[in-house]
């Protein structure tokens, strides 16, 4: 199966259209994204492979997706922990953090992060998504470098953090050699996927045919009740 890709500009426009014209809220979109992430983790790293999941969250919507994923993983029987070095003041994120506190999901401090990397079985990179551009700013250069050199499997959410959405990995510095074992594209793959080598999932089952046609997107066939599907990407079809 091959899918067309969605530029960062069109991804932002699509999200806006979903909320303005199609009745969706940011809470709903984040919930579905985090659910998709959790299902991708279960598919490639079932609890029998190790239950300690470290979720590294950024300050934006990508980090919120990671917080939601951590909650679902806790209900699946994993033992997630969350490193959230630069949290948002948005009340939505406060609610997501409270939900994790109620499940006794551990919050990792900066001092604990290196040890947590070594003791975890799997890592979710939910630092930056399709809106990332420019250069990394503190504390994220060091965080990306540590994720890049981690010896445990990594699933990146929507994009490997530090990668440019159009042009892929940076030529040098943190993230230049970062190639996570798995990637989940939310809604649709982004143009950088032509540089990615690994297992690739898409989570976007909520899209209607109307909005998919508006953005010239393919709707993959999701099996059964799954929110994710493993795919290949036709990079010639990028928007």
From TrEMBL:
Its EC number is 5.1.99.6. SUPFAM superfamilies: YjeF N-terminal domain-like. One of its GO terms (molecular function) is NAD(P)HX epimerase activity. It comes from the Eukaryota. InterPro entries: YjeF_N_dom, YjeF_N_dom_sf, YJEFN_prot_NAXE-like. One of its GO terms (cellular component) is mitochondrion. Its main location: cytoplasm. It catalyses: (6R)-NADPHX = (6S)-NADPHX; (6R)-NADHX = (6S)-NADHX. Its cofactor is K(+). Keywords: Cytoplasm, Isomerase, Metal-binding, Mitochondrion, NAD, NADP, Nucleotide-binding, Potassium. PANTHER family: NAD(P)H-HYDRATE EPIMERASE. Catalyzes the epimerization of the S- and R-forms of NAD(P)HX, a damaged form of NAD(P)H that is a result of enzymatic or heat-dependent hydration. This is a prerequisite for the S-specific NAD(P)H-hydrate dehydratase to allow the repair of both epimers of NAD(P)HX. Belongs to the NnrE/AIBP family. This is NAD(P)H-hydrate epimerase. It comes from Aspergillus tanneri. The lineage of its organism: Eukaryota, Fungi, Dikarya, Ascomycota, Pezizomycotina.
């Amino acid at each position: 199966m091959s899918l067309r890709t969605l530029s960062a500009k069109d991804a932002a426009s699509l999200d806006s259209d979903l909320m303005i014209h199609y009745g969706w809220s940011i809470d709903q979109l984040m919930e579905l994204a985090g659910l998709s992430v959790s299902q991708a983790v279960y598919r490639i790293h079932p609890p029998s492979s190790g239950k300690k999941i470290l979720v590294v969250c950024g300050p934006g919507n990508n980090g919120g997706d990671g917080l939601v994923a951590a909650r679902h993983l806790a209900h699946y029987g994993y033992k997630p922990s969350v490193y959230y070095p630069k949290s948002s003041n948005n009340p939505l994120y406060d609610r997501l953090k409270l939900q994790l506190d109620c499940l006794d999901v551990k919050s990792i401090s900066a001092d604990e992060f290196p040890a947590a990397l070594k003791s975890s079985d799997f890592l979710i990179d939910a630092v930056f998504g399709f809106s990332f551009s420019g250069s990394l700013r503190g504390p994220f250069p060091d965080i990306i470098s540590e994720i890049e050199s981690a010896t445990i499997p990594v699933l990146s959410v929507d994009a490997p953090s530090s990668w440019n959405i159009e042009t892929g990995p940076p030529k040098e510095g943190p993230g230049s050699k970062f190639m996570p074992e798995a990637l989940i594209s939310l809604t649709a793959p982004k143009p950088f996927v032509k540089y990615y080598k690994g297992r690739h999932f898409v989570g976007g089952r909520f899209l209607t045919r109307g909005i998919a046609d508006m953005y010239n997107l393919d709707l993959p066939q999701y099996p059964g009740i799954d929110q994710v599907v493993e795919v290949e990407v036709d990079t010639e079809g990028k928007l």
